[in-house]
Amino acid sequence: MGFYAVQSLNALSFSMLLLLTGLGLSVVLNLMNFVNLTHGSFFLLGAYVGVYWLASGAPWWLTFPVAFVAAGLVGFLLERFPFRQFYARTHLMQVLLTYGLSVIFADLMRWGFGAQILSAEIPEALRGVVFIMDMPFPIYRLFIIGFGAALAFALWFVIDRTIWGAVVRACVTDRGFVETLGLDTRRIFTAVLVISAGLGGISGALGAGILSAYPGLDEEVLILALIVVVAGGLGTFRGTVLSALLLGFAMTFSKVWVPEFSNVVALAVMAALLVALPEGLVARKVRQV
Predict the structure, then answer these.
(1) Nearest CA to 211 among 118, 135, 275, 107?
(2) Which residues pair with 118 in a beta bridge?
(3) How many CA atoms lie within 13 A of 225 on its CB side?
(4) pLDDT tens digits, residue range 28-43?
(5) What does the DSSP 8-state code read for residue 234?
(6) Which of these, 47, 52, 127, 144, has the minimum number of CB atoms within 10 Å of its CB?
C-alpha cells in the first residue's frame, strides 16, 4: 500500500505541473480564442530562470516571481507584436505564427543557455523526505502539489469570481460593447497574455527541480499541455483539471507497470478518451457574464 500511495503522490505532483502548464494555454484559448504554441517556450524559459536563480544563492522563494516576470515580459512583447495582428485570423494562421516563433525561441535559448542538461538545486528548506507508510517521499514534490493547487485555485477565483474576470469574458463575448463603456480591451488582452506567459514561467521554475532544463523540453511540455487542453474540453477549467490528473496518473503508473511502453500506454489512454468523448471530458459551454 505504501508503494502505491507514494506513486499516487508522484502522479499528483506531475499532474500539477501539467495542470499549471495546461491552464496557461487554456486561459488564452478560452478568453481570447487564440492558439499560442509558444507556451512551451515560456515553460523552458522559466526552467532556465529557476536553474540559474537557485544556483546564484538568492532567496529561493523569489524564484517564482522572477520566473513569472521573465516569461510575462516576453509574453507582453509578443502580445504587442505580432500576436495582436493575428487575433482576428484563423486558428491555422495562429498556429503557423506561434509554432514558427517557438522554433526561433528554442534556437535562441540553446544559444543563450547551451545544449547541456541543467539541473536545478533544490532549496535547502525543501530538501529531504517524509515517510508515508514507511516509504520516503520528497518534500519538494509535496511543495509542488500544494503550491500548484493553490495557484490553480487562485487563477480560477480571479477568472470566475471577480469583476475583472467578468470583464475579460465580456471582451470575448462582445468586444465592441465593452469598449463603449470606456474600457481598453487591448490592455485587458495584454494582461491575459502576460498572466498566461507568467504561469508558464512559474510552471517551468517549479518543474526544473524534477525535470531539469534542456533543449527540447519546451516541445515535450507543449505536446502534453495540448493533450491536457484538448482532452479536457477546449478552454474549460474543470476539464483541464480532470485531464491533467488523468494524464499525470496514466503516465506515472504506466512507467511502474509497463516501463518499456509507458508513453505509448499513457497516450493511448488519452486517445481512447477523445474517441469516446470527442468534445473532451467537459464540453465547452457559452459563458454568461
Answers:
(1) 118
(2) 213
(3) 33
(4) 988 888 999 999 999 9
(5) T
(6) 127
| CA–CA gap between residue 77 and residue 262 (Å, rounded) | 38
Residue 22 burial (C-beta neighbours within 10 Å; 0-12, 13-18, 19+)? buried
Q: CA-to-CA distance for 200 and 42, rounded, in angstroms?
A: 5
DSSP summary character for residue 213: B
Specify burial of residue 109 (Cβ count, 10 A radius: 0-12, 13-18, 19+): buried
Instruction: State pLDDT tens for residues 68-107.
Output: 999 999 999 999 889 989 988 999 999 999 999 999 999 9
Cβ density class 130-164: b for 16+ within 10 Å, e for less: eebeebebbbbbbbbbeebeebbeebeeebeeeee
Long-range pairs of 167-176 with CB within 8 A, sequence gap ≥ 24: 168/31, 168/192, 169/31, 169/287, 169/289, 170/289, 171/31, 172/31, 172/32, 172/33, 172/287, 173/287, 173/289
| 235/238 Cα distance (integer angstroms) | 9
Contacts of 119 (CB under 8 A, 6+ apart): 51, 208, 212, 213
pLDDT tens string 221-273? 999 999 999 888 876 888 899 999 999 999 899 888 888 777 788 788 888 88
Cell of 163: 469583476
- Written as nine digits, the cell of 112 is 543563450
